[in-house]
Inverse folding.
């Protein structure tokens, strides 16, 4: 059986240091600030300066110029079934305290699953993928998080 794997790798020094927190006026120069939707995982960001998140968003910030000295990279995969005629979310979680540097999903070759999104997960340190199953039988979705220890 052929497996199709899609991975999104976030570049070193930009998203490796994803950290949840409130933004402050004393943020380090070069920091990148964004808001992540708690419902869709969509990311809204400004290249420079402060950004205000709405009540349905989680603020995230990461160092835009510095590498963070991550070590011990590994991958964490989780598979789950998406029931017929429904949409489902699968979350791959890194070990506590570790960060997700990227991630992606895998489906069987020819799978009818419709991938709706694949993005950093909430909580931080995870990767999530959402798929819709238009068929009459359960289909498997595997999600991978690429993790590292800060």
């Amino acid at each position: 059986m052929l497996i199709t794997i899609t991975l999104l790798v976030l570049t070193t020094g930009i998203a490796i240091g994803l950290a949840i927190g409130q933004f402050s006026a004393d943020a380090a120069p070069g920091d990148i600030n964004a808001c992540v939707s708690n419902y869709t995982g969509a990311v809204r960001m400004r290249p420079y300066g402060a950004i205000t998140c709405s009540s349905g968003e989680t603020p995230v910030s990461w160092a835009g110029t510095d590498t963070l000295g991550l070590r011990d990279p590994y991958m964490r995969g989780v598979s789950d079934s998406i029931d017929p005629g429904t949409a489902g979310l699968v979350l791959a979680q890194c070990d506590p305290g570790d960060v997700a540097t990227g991630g992606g999903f895998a489906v069987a070759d020819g799978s009818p699953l419709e991938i709706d999104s694949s993005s950093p997960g909430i909580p931080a340190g995870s990767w999530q993928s959402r798929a819709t199953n238009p068929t009459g039988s359960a289909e498997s979705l595997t999600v991978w998080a690429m993790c590292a220890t800060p």
